Amino acid sequence: MSQRRKFIKKSLLGSLVALPTLSHALPRIDFSRKKADGPLILSTWNHGLPANVAAIEKFKQTGSILDAVETGVKDTELDMDNLSVGLQGLPDREGITTLDASIMTGDGSCGSVAFVRQIKHPITLARAVMEKTPHVMLAGEGARQFAIAEGFPLEKEELSPKAQEAYDEWKKTSKYKPVINIENHDTIGMIGMDDKGKLAGSCTTSGLAYKMHGRVGDSPIIGAGLYVDDEAGAATATGLGESIIRICGSFLIVELMRQGRSPQEACEEAVRRLISKNRKNIADIQAGFLAINKDGEVGAFAVHPGFNFAKANLTSNELIDSKSHF
Ligand code: SD4
Fold this sequence. Notes:
Blueprint: H1 3-18, H2 22-25, E1 40-44, H3 48-62, H4 65-77, E2 99-105, E3 110-116, H5 122-132, E4 137-139, H6 140-149, H7 161-171, E5 188-193, E6 199-205, E7 226-229, E8 233-239, H8 241-245, H9 249-258, H10 263-277, E9 287-293, E10 298-302, E11 308-312, E12 317-321
Parallel strand pairs: 3-4
Antiparallel strand pairs: 1-5, 1-11, 2-3, 2-6, 5-6, 7-8, 8-9, 9-10, 11-12
Helix pairs in contact: 3-4, 4-5, 9-10
This protein binds N-hydroxy-L-asparagine.
């Protein structure tokens, strides 16, 4: 063996001995902490109240926070009065309803679907992407093909009566000017913690009403509409997706919490950042963030007034008004 090869072998061995083993190198997560009294579930807007009930019920049955956040938002995906989530949601400019959804657990597992049609429960499809594929995100026709292969029924492609009425009205002018807090705001983002401190989150939407065909919002983008990390916390977003994607809103909040900010401080900083990167039309932009840290503390903040969220545990479920920057 040449001197050089001997040297490399020796120094590699030396560095191997010097390196700590992987289990020592990785930070340990203390799942024994019990800051939340039973599960804690948070979700955006007032439809979060019934969604939280469904989530808590599911948690009682299976003890899984992932099952809870999936089941909770499925309730909203079927809510015929909600025109921003599920197949009854308002369509794009072409009159087609397309859906975005994502799901994530605190160990880094995640899945999402974007620009998907005819699927009643995009959140369940996102979970299937997470659990049954080597990928994180499937979009459009590919997502639909995957759904068919997984046995998801394809729904008829027709607008709900309320969506049809609204679309017919919109077509009279075909103007695209979203009105904050009146249309375009009912996305559900849900984040939850189990009694041992494990986190999970979900987010599902039909996106902006009358968007361009093919437009994808923040909700299926891991780090924008949703981010979850057992070591720091979880966050979800609602509002104008473009403004949220620009600042990687949910990831930003989780990273700020990792650095020691409280969930409230982190949400406020994210809103400040969002405003600074969207100055031109901030009067027309609503966005709201919801966060929980690894100790079970909660925060929420929005650009404009009007954002609220629902917070539930085993014994209570309440609607709370978020503060806002303006
Ligand atoms: C989107 N963030 O597609 C979604 C819309 C939304 O509450 O949150 N509405 O941009």
